[in-house]
Design goal:
76 residues, mainly alpha, 0% strand, rod-shaped
Length: 76
Amino acid sequence: MSAGPGEMIRRIEELESQAAFQDELHETLNTIVAKQDREILELKRQLGMLNDRLKEISEAAPGHASGPAEEIPPHY
């Protein structure tokens, strides 16, 4: 592979350009993943709070049974 100095310079510049693009893409993706991680943690927290609230409402409901085994079938 005998390429002249001009060709080698062009190839090196192309590789540098690709490396810079990949660095920028890596940073962008890292930022997106970090943001999504924060959002997932917040959604998990909210889901836990909602689950707790639904349990409270269910337990406070009139005629609350603690499980399906204690429920009276509708035909009785």
